Amino acid sequence: MTSTAYNRIVAAVDGSSTSDLALREALRVAGGGATILALYVVDNGVMLFDAGYYDPTQIERAFADSGKRALEAAGKVLADAGATFETKLVTEPAVAGDIAGSINEAAREWGGDLLVIGTHGRRGVRRIVLGSVAEAVIRQATMPVLLVRGQAAEG
């Protein structure tokens, strides 16, 4: 049996190339001995404001469908690698409008002992203005977090 430092690794995925890198790093860290949870949290932040009457169910469905596609792709990568894994789609985040808080809560509830998340390579003013889910995750984390750097964005 392969001994790993971590037994339950959570990989936050969003369908981006950066989250693909994070998923592959989670596989590398798992080394065949840990279980990986591919986790997608639906961003419900756009549903928090009132712009007159509208029915948010179509938007919610589109976001959930996007999450399902991201998890299917992650599941294929994990299955092809022979990993022990689970996938989880969080459609009702623990913290409304707070993806990072919801990622941390889902990871904690699953019993994760490492959280792997990609950064999106923002630099300078764009990073300060736009913020980062990964940065918010590490500020709130109750377990070790492994950041996987994506390609640096121009500007």
From TrEMBL:
Coiled coil: none annotated. It holds the Pfam family Usp. InterPro entries: Rossmann-like_a/b/a_fold, Universal_stress_UspA, UspA. Residues 6-149 form the UspA domain. Belongs to the universal stress protein A family. This is Universal stress protein.
